[in-house]
Amino acid sequence: MPRAFSEGRPEATRSLRASTPAARIAALADAGSVQLLPPAGASPHLARFAIDAREDDGIVVARARMAGLRVLVAAQDERYLAGSVGERHGNALRALFEATRRERADAVVLLLASGGVRLHEANAAELALARALAALVDARARGVAVVAIGIGNVFGGASVLGCATDRFALLPGTRLGLSGPKVLESVHGKWQLDADDPRDVDAVFGAKARNDAGFVDLVVDDPDAIRAWIASAVRDRERHFENAVIAVHRRLAQRIAGDTAHAPSFASLPCFAGAVPVDGAGRVFLGPSCWLTRPSSGAAIGPADAHAQDDALLANVVPVADKRTTLLLVEDSSGHAISRAAEMKLVSQFLAHHACVLGLLRARAARLVGLLAGVGHSAAFFANALQATTVYALPDTRVVAMDPSAVARVTGIAPDALVDDDPLLGQPVRHFAAQGGVTIVSEATLDALGIA
Predict the structure, then answer these.
(1) 31, 5, 36, 41: which is closest to 21 by C-alpha?
(2) Residue 186 CB: number of other CB atoms within 10 A?
(3) Can you give the CATH number for the domain in which 203 is found?
(4) Which of 233, 76, 43 is nearest to 153 (CA)?
(5) Phi, psi of 335 (to 5 degrees)
(6) Which of 237, 259, 281 is the last residue of a domain?
């Protein structure tokens, strides 16, 4: 259960929040053990916005020892573009998780401080973060401990990454959520959340509120206390990945008890021909050659919806999954639910858990195939279909990595140009395909591939 760690005496000179990413790593590592790894590389996408690219792209990665543990560690820099995850930043995270097999590390430690996917690199950044999330889950499935600490605020896709770890902690004064305060206010108005009222914001996103709700640990901002938490989190975690996934599923069920899950109707797709639902709401279908999940056409994915999907997968697909199993993740939604209620339940954790359920299927050698049949929207897309090893998209589908108005506000590019024409920010699926995120196919092609 989440706890509050208070060992140590926080002092200004010892504060990790006040330190640089490299200094944070050095403060936590055993003396003389830090070996910095090559930097992520400067982003090629920022010059057009008159932003100076940095060679580390806002993340420092290293190998070290912490409390005697051999660890790989990544520290994000909130001082650079709010710690946002660009393409190179996301690739560095993915490489770190993939290195665990070669390094035989005891653990991966994430020192998070990020606003999420970088608005300036939307399509490329979302793809990179999705692949990093899959690599994180696969590392856990291989038995590597992955723990995260919110050194600064953690929002957007970075919050899903943190929630997918074995254990997650926050420092006092930090905040955690998927949709930030300004987003909630812009969608619903101040009656739902006043983004200018720190008390109202902290009641939803604040570290103390998250700890009081039992969602995360709370650790005092002191290297000794944080190091002790890391050692405890690695030692006390559930080491069997499947058991860990099931335990989280049960805890999340208690969190949404009494909530209604939605299963909206969807237009008939040829890939569902001959398929029959295997659960009461038809969230999972069994077809002649594969299992299929239903799209959520026009609907947002809330905590109860994500949990109901995982219920169906854990009850029907996971028990029989092996190398002969194919699961087609049919993607079409309006994204994750943006509401105070969803954030109070920490919707990030439900999406992260879904990614872990899919990782459990990968660990059983099942083949995961994504099919974008409508709209692939932000975190709902990257935690679902983008977790597949192969992703196809039907022509005329769209990818909404970021809301165009938000991108326009940050980048200064007119929304009309963003929506259709921009290679990095545009929504037509051809742009995402150009990044290597999907392969555009027809339904007939899917049938020829033996998937539908």
Answers:
(1) 36
(2) 16
(3) 3.90.226.10
(4) 76
(5) 100, -170
(6) 237
- pLDDT tens for 391-409 read 999 999 999 987 777 777 7
The secondary structure of the chain in percent helix, strand, coil, rounded to multiples of 5, reads 40, 20, 40
CA distance 163 to 296: 23
Tell whether 369 and 287 lie within a shared domain.
Answer: yes
pTM higher than the cut 0.90:
yes
Domain, as residue range, for 352: 246-448
Contact 381, 295 (CB under 8 A): no
Among 69, 119, 155, which residue's Cα sits nearest to residue 336?
Answer: 155
Task: Give the distance from CA 149 to its chain's centroid.
Answer: 15
Q: Are 261 and 245 in contact (CB under 8 A)?
A: no
Claim to verify: residue 232 and residue 256 sit in the same structural domain:
no
Last residue of a domain, which of 237, 271, 295? 237
Using pLDDT thresholds of 50, 70 and 90, give the confidence band for residue 275: very high
Instruction: Name the packing angle between helices 241-255 and 303-312 (round to 10°).
Output: 140
158-191: pLDDT as tens digits: 999 999 999 999 999 999 999 999 988 988 889 8
**Which residues, listed in sequence order, are joined to residue 327 by a DSSP beta bridge?**
291, 368
Q: Read off the pLDDT of residues 89-101 as tens digits, 9 standing for 90 and up.
A: 999 999 999 999 8
**Cβ-contact 343, 177 below 8 angstroms:** yes
Is residue 369 helix, strand or coil? strand
* Least confident residue range of 17-21, 265-269, 307-311: 265-269
The C-alpha R_g of the chain, in whole angstroms, comes to 21
